[in-house]
Specification:
With about 600 residues, the chain is of the alpha/beta class. The protein has 20 helices and 13 strands. The strands form four sheets. It has a four-stranded antiparallel sheet with strand order 1-2-4-3. Strands 6-5-10-11 form a four-stranded parallel sheet, sandwiched between helices. The structure holds arginine. Arginine (ARG) binds near residues 124 and 328. InterPro entries: aa-tRNA-synth_I_CS, Arg-tRNA-ligase, Arg-tRNA-synth_N, Arg-tRNA-synth_N_sf, ArgRS_core, DALR_anticod-bd, Rossmann-like_a/b/a_fold, tRNAsynth_Ia_anticodon-bd.
């Protein structure tokens, strides 16, 4: 279905052509003077030179052609030559009816199947999820849902940090603590125990301990490197222990991500592509791309047009070890082979921008990926505390994700109980969790990803202003009006939208009509914040309309049915949008 602006522009182009001017001049945009008009066209100004005519005359002639237009209720040619436009209520109503009847409210989707891989989450095994992981998970989940809604086949991959020295460190510490375990006995040929010899809390304590020790004790570090080497070379006990580390850690991650309503299709990681590394490196050498520099193996990725220094992409360190970039390159190669994606989107901290720039360039140069696959890095900013400095716990540590969610849920619970004393505690707890998730996610997603933001429990959980709870509150309000309507015997079937009867109603309908334009941009720019801004405007428009309009007490049944139809559509759009942001609304709150 055409976007509303395109439908309007088409009518305007026709008028320009009929008046004898180039139809390209009939481009319409949203008005930047909403007090005067809804849309505007500046084509007469642009055409003045070409036609040697005063713009106001051209505008006047075009306006004349639109006198009987079904699209516009008002076309005013104003000095020095603008066309100020208002759309007709009937046209707007018909447009909304078209959205209602269409799949996805008329959003156009690609005709052939296209595939997108979204690489997000990216936690490191055996380290607790902290506030930094929140953004990757929340933004990535939304980008994934948006791409799916936009009609793409989408694969979400968590890309675990599950390989390298980090694993060797954990194995070393376990060996110190539990040398009696069979994993360290290389002559052991029996079956290893099914149970992991540690719990998740032990694991989370072991890693920082080991990492601290290796910084102080060179012998310990040596040991950790040796263990890493053994793991990477498939020593049986080391692999078995690694399996335990992964399964204990992944079980805990799944629990955490589930709380965030975040779900991955693939649980791959850096380890997944180890089998590809040797051949890939060999090919890069053979192709003349990779060469030795100061002992390391590198690929030059700078380009003539660069305005800043882009260092070479390092493929192997001087000790022959693979790096983060090596596994990322191999992962690109594996994804191309397995899924032939049209787009790969990576969601990480923006401090990794250079890493991805190098990896993307290297992948293209070495032909791991063709020119028709888009590689996109979405870098996000830091989560700060209320003081604007990077978020810290009271004792200076990095806050765990679990605790953040807990804090928000508690505050939400307090607020719900405060306003709803009659609500049973269990219900209030459930609702607090649903609304709490919206508070966190909206608090994050409503900021443009690249910007830093402050994690502000008070603001995020407020029922007023640009917050998740405010959006949910609006949806719940609509649900309750619809329930009342049904209680009075009204049916939600076969309702028909009617042309707006008040300016507030029209304003609400105008917001609804913007949906598919907004969605197109949100997808093209991987920008969930556009959805947030849209539903905030939509919720505001709805609430203004609601305060000015009799709905349930409206006596004219036909009129009432039209209003109810508009409520249903508003609710559906809001619900679709929050689903794309990764949260949902309760039935009451
Ligand atoms: N594990 C990485 C980190 O903690 C993030 C991984 C992102 N994905 C990727 N393909 N590099 O920084």
């Amino acid at each position: 279905m055409k976007k509303i602006l395109d439908a309007i522009s088409e009518e305007m182009r026709k008028a320009f052509a009929e008046a004898g001017y180039d139809e390209e001049l009939g481009k319409v945009s949203l008005s930047n003077r909403p007090d005067l008009c809804e849309y505007q066209c500046n084509g007469a100004m642009a055409g003045a030179k070409k036609y040697h005519k005063a713009p106001i005359m051209i505008a006047g002639e075009v306006a004349e052609k639109l006198k009987d237009s079904a699209v516009f209720s008002e076309v005013n040619a104003v000095a020095p030559g603008f066309l100020n436009l208002k759309v007709s209520d009937v046209f707007l109503c018909d447009y909304l009816k078209g959205m209602e009847a269409a799949d996805k409210f008329g959003l156009e989707t690609p005709e052939e199947e296209k595939t997108v891989i979204v690489d997000y989450g990216g936690p490191n095994v055996a380290k607790p999820l902290h506030v930094g992981h929140l953004r990757s998970a929340v933004i990535g989940e939304s980008v994934k849902r948006i791409a799916r809604y936009a009609g793409y086949k989408v694969i979400g991959d968590i890309h675990l940090g599950d390989w390298g020295l980090q694993m060797g460190l954990i194995i070393t510490e376990l060996q110190e603590r539990k040398p009696e375990l069979p994993y360290f006995d290389e002559s052991f040929t029996g079956e290893y125990p099914k149970e992991a010899p540690f719990t998740i809390s032990e694991l989370e304590e072991i890693y920082p301990t080991a990492s601290g020790k290796s910084k102080e004790d060179p012998a310990y570090k040596e040991k950790a490197m040796e263990n890493t080497f053994k793991l990477q070379n498939g020593v049986r006990g080391h692999r078995a222990l690694w399996d335990h580390i992964i399964s204990v850690s992944v079980a805990d991650m799944k629990r955490n991500y589930e709380k965030l309503n975040v779900e991955f299709d693939l649980w791959n990681g850096e380890s997944t592509v180890q089998y590809l590394l040797a051949d890939m490196v060999e090919e890069m050498k053979k192709g003349g791309y990779a060469y030795e520099s100061e002992g390391a193996l590198v690929v030059d990725v700078k380009e003539e047009s660069d305005t800043k220094e882009i260092p070479p992409c390092i493929i192997l360190k001087s000790d022959g070890a693979a790096l983060y970039s090596t596994t990322d390159l191999a992962t690109i190669s594996e994804r191309v082979t397995k899924y032939n994606p049209d787009i790969m989107i990576y969601i990480t901290d923006k401090r990794q921008a250079m890493h991805f720039e190098q990896v993307f360039r290297c992948a293209r140069k070495t032909k791991l990926v063709g020119d028709d696959t888009k590689l996109v890095h979405i870098g996000f900013g830091t989560v700060n505390g209320k003081d604007g400095k990077p978020f810290k716990t009271r004792d200076g540590g990095v806050p765990r994700l679990e605790n953040l969610i807990h804090d928000i849920d508690e505050e939400m619970f307090r607020k719900i109980v405060e306003s709803r004393q009659e609500m049973p505690e269990e219900e209030a707890r459930n609702i607090a969790e649903i609304v709490g998730l919206a508070a966190i996610k909206y608090g994050d997603l409503s900021n443009q990803a690249a910007k830093d933001y402050s994690f502000d429990v008070d603001r995020f959980t407020s029922f007023e202003g640009d917050t998740g709870p405010y959006i949910l509150y609006t949806i719940v309000r609509i649900k309750s009006i619809l329930a009342k309507y049904q209680d009075q015997g009204g049916s939600l079937e076969n309702l028909e939208l009617a042309p707006a009867i008040s300016p507030d109603e029209k304003a609400l309908m105008m917001e609804i009509a913007k949906f598919n334009t907004m969605m197109e941009t949100a997808f093209a720019e991987c920008a969930p914040h556009k959805i947030c801004a849209y539903i905030y405007d939509l919720a505001n428009a709805f609430n203004r309309f609601y305060h000015e309009t009799k709905i349930i007490s409206e006596e004219d049944e036909a009129k009432k049915a039209g209003l109810i139809a508009l409520l249903v559509l508003t609710k559906e759009i809001l619900e679709t949008c929050i689903e794309l942001l990764g949260f949902s609304a309760p039935d009451r709150m």
